[in-house]
Amino acid sequence: MNLRMLRALAICVGAVAMIAGSARAQDAPVKIGAVLSLSGPAAVFGIPERDAIQAIVAKMSSTTKGGRKFEISFYDDKSNPTEATRAVNQAINDKVVAIVGPSTGSGILAAGPIAQRLSTPLIGPAGTLAITDPKNEFYPWIFRAAPSDASDVRAILQDMAKGNAKKVGIFYQEDAYGKTGVDLAREVGPSLGLNVVETASAPYTATDLTAQATKLRNAGAQAVFLQISIAALGSSFVKAARQVGLSVPIYANAGLAQRSFAENVGNEVEGLRIVSIGNLPYDPTPGEAELAKMLEAAGKQPQGWGELTGSNALMAALGAIDRQKGKDITGASMRETLESLCDFDKFARGRVCYSAKDHDGWHEDALVITEVRNKQFRSVP
Amino acid sequence: MTLTATSLSAHYGRLQVCHNIDLSVSAGEYLIVLGANGAGKSSLLGALAGIVASSGGITLSGRRLDQASARVRAGSGLVLVPEGRGNLFAPLTVEENLAIALRHLPGAERREILSEVLALFPILGERGAQPAGMLSGGEQQMLALAVALGRRPKALLLDEPSQGLAPVVLDELIAAINRLRSLGMALLIAEQNVRFAAALGDRFVLLRGGEIIHEGAPAELADRRGTAFRLMGTH
Amino acid sequence: MIHFVEYVLRGALAGAIYALLAAPMSLLFATARTIDFAVGAYALIAAAVAATIGGIAGAEAGLAAAMLSAAIMSLIFVGLKRLGCEDGIVFALASFGLSAVIESFVLWYWGARSFIVSYVAASWSLGGIRLDQQGLFNLLIAAIVVVILHVVVRHSSLGRMMRASAVNAVGATLAAIPVEGLQMGVYLAGGLLAGLAGLLVLYSAGIDFTAPLGLTLSGFGAAIVFGVGSPLRCLFGGIAMGVAQALASGYLSEALSAMTPFLFILLVLSMRPADTEALAGGRP
Fold it and tell me: What average pLDDT does range A68-89 have in this prediction?
């Protein structure tokens, strides 16, 4: 065999491989990446997100409703933006066409430029406003899988406005989440006839919040809004408020809608109102109940909205895959399809439509106002 | 013999600083260990007291102590006053320093020793409530001696008691140390101040390079051209 | 004016916890010239265990867990000493490491949940200001503990030996003081006190795995602000820290209030530089 023959043979083998490969492309499973906070502080959300995705994949036997095989691989962003960037890069190297995650707003913002450069959309289960800011250069590549922080604040303040309170005091934790909530409440409040008269804050580790509660009481607050995601701070503030005689209705943003908060606090938080993304553990809609059943079948106890936002992101990706029946799917085609995706199959409540102008998709109708009753979040009709 | 060392060597890790030293001090006897800086005086005293690693034999009134810890040696009556009054606790008051030294004794004996010590060093009675670190150098040395005496030593090791003291204070200190003769203990004083040593010792040994190179009587130290000065290579 | 008084009172009550965390730091400094930065972590583990088991048995188990953690620190201390380390800063850094390990352990074993014991204590009214019984109880406990420690450190033979060990370990050995044993004992006592603080935090406010650093820093501030050598000053330091925090939360903008307690420490420290020398024990 001479050199020329060898080359010819190689070309033939290559051609056969290519034909076989393209024939298989229609059958080969579509790859989706899930970059989630499986460790670190954001694991409170990342782990339920993963659990929901695994439960759904198991139930669907890795096949979309439209009959397309898919495959999902998990990556840990360790609650850390740098790791999120690395994990997104790794996932795209592994040939995924869309990524569920990263779990945190800062992770999504850090990974955005890579998603843009490598043409793979991110479907982020985070409320952080900035991730879908049209001013971002990578805006076309990011889709939200949960109501934004602005929706949350609007929903809970609307509920507050139904009462008699006009003067609002805000207590928030000293971090980006806390600060964003205060700014949004100041912006949204006046249009609902609510006037923010005083704000008070504390670091995560504060052990005594009576001074903060006193400050809000002295300002004559008729209702209090809590922008907190640390359960200990929430219960500590409510205790402090009762102690200093601040006996006004208290409303909390979705950060406190955690099962561990409801179950570990006592009578003093009875009646506290919290906005939540769905109500998976206590008052589920039929769709949510279906997801809860899948989770239980997988041996997991429904925790709260982490599972719902995780499922939202996955279902959006699967919806986009089914809209591309018979086509070759790439990151770019996924992005294009997601941008006009509307009314796809999902478990959470609310109507979702993405468009070129609206990468948020989810809005107030995905939320529910709950009240703490007997160590549970009960939906308020 | 109250205190004997046989073939005693001192080590810092692998470095041997004193070599096969034999010496003995009897009750009531004052032995001076003379030597220049770096001759190994402090290491020898440290080895005897157990704060520097050593090999060789050490006995105190017939009891072998070479395997005992520094705490046990101190408890047995082999008491060291380290260089720079290192047995004092500067922020603690004079009274507190004495209380620590006397704490193991029953009340009656404690009061007895305390009054004995205050009789020897009356200045300490006046300074009782002052932190030790605020005393003058001479007073600190008195307190260091008083604290050591509080342990009722059979053998007392003084490391450079003259260090940093003015000549007039030295004379007071010589007088004070001479007053201790009535207590009948063995005293080993490491010094490089020859005048001070000559005024105190019954006997001296000369240390150089970690070895004893000469022994003699204090009278010899009066002669500035004598063997001792020549061997020390100073003055 | 009544508002001002109320902030001061509430701050003073909150400061009791800091005093309890500061006391072990002061004690250890008085004995070994180092700081145990794991006290916040001992408080966390005590609270976590107590909340999980519940009741009196839980409180006891919590204190035991805190002391066990402190025992680990004392072994690290002795181990480092045997390796020839004598610098207090090394032990302090090691305690930071242990704190991180305990924090990670709590996160791994219990997850990111908060530890909350729910009950509302009765409150008393004082000139129109409602004060919580739990807060008054915390202050009482802190005051009792600190006074006992003060008497032990300043006026007992044990206290003299502790202070002697800190300033001159060789001298203490020559005086037949069991230096290492004393220092290990002080680490253990520190674990007990920090554990007690952790229980009080649990019953007053609740705690989660992020708490140790903040607790440690507040305790450290309380320990040093009026001079680290004395437990009695810890009580005043803790109260001062608590009052500074409460006034800052009440009257300053949020951005400023977070840093105020530490600005306060800097201010106090910069006002009395001479004292730090006396504290080191030397002749000025």
Answer: 92
Residues A280, A377 contacting (CB under 8 angstroms) = no
In the predicted model, what is the mean pLDDT of chain B? 85
pLDDT of A303 higher than 80:
yes
Query: Does residue A301 belong to the interface with chain C, where contact is any CB pair within 8 Å?
Result: no
Range of the domain at A106: 30-147+285-364
- The domain spanning residue A109 has which CATH number? 3.40.50.2300
Q: Which residues have C-beta within 8 Å of that of residue C205, sequence separation ≥ 6? A: A206, A207, A208, A209, A232, A235, A236, A239, A240
Q: Is A273 helix (H, G, I), strand (E, B) or coil?
A: strand
The reply to whether A307 and A266 lie within a common domain is no
ipTM of the complex: 0.78
In a domain? residue C128: no
Touching subunits for chain A (3+ Cβ pairs under 8 A): C
pLDDT digits (tens, 9 = 90+) for C213-222: 888 888 888 8
Are the C-beta atoms of residues B218 and B202 closer than 8 Å to each other? Answer: yes
**Residue in B82, B90, B91 closest to C174 by CB:** B82
What CATH class does B3-88+153-232 carry? alpha beta
Token representation of residue C145:
């503990």
Mutate to test the interface with A, among C10, C129, C138, C203 (most CBs of A within 10 A): C10
CB contact under 8 A, A205 and C213: yes
Is the model's pLDDT at A22 over the cut of 60?
Answer: no
| pLDDT of A72 | 95
Chain C residues within 8 A of A174 when measuring between CB atoms: 254, 258
Picking from B42, B45, B65, B71 by the largest number of C CB atoms within 10 A of its own CB, the best residue to mutate is B71
Q: Do chains B and A touch (3 or more CB pairs under 8 A)?
A: no
User: Which chain B residues have a beta carbon less than 8 Å from that of C164?
Assistant: 89, 92, 100
Number of domains present in the structure of chain A: 2
Res C281: pLDDT: 37
Do A235 and A259 meet the contact criterion of CB atoms below 8 Å apart?
no
CA geometry: angle C86, C152, C80, nearest 5 deg = 15
Percentages (nearest 5) of helix, strand, coil residues in chain B: 40, 30, 30
Q: How confident is the model at residue B169 (pLDDT cuts 50, 70, 90)?
A: confident
Q: Do residues A272 and A357 share a domain?
A: no
Please choose, from the candidates C191, C211, C17, the residue with its C-alpha nearest in 3D space to the C-alpha of residue C115.
Answer: C211
pLDDT at C88 (0 to 100): 84
Residue A228 lies in a domain: yes
B86 and C157 within 8 Å at the Cβ level: the answer is no
Q: What is the pLDDT of residue C275?
A: 47
Q: How far apart are CA A275 and CA A283, in angstroms?
A: 13
Chain A residue closest in CA terms to C116: A264
Give yes or no for residue C94 having a pLDDT over 90. Answer: yes
- Chains C vs A: touching, with 3+ CB pairs under 8 Å? yes
Closest Cβ–Cβ partner in A212, A232, A268 for C207: A232
Nearest to C174 among B49, B96, B99 (CB): B49
At C60-92, the pLDDT tens digits run 999 999 999 999 999 999 999 888 887 888 999
For residue C57, count CB atoms less than 10 angstroms from its CB and return exposed for 0-12, middle for 13-18, buried for 19 or more: exposed
> Considering only alpha carbons, which residue of chain C is nearest residue B101?
C175
pLDDT per position as a tens digit, A169-227: 999 988 888 888 899 999 999 999 999 999 999 887 787 898 999 999 999 999 999 99
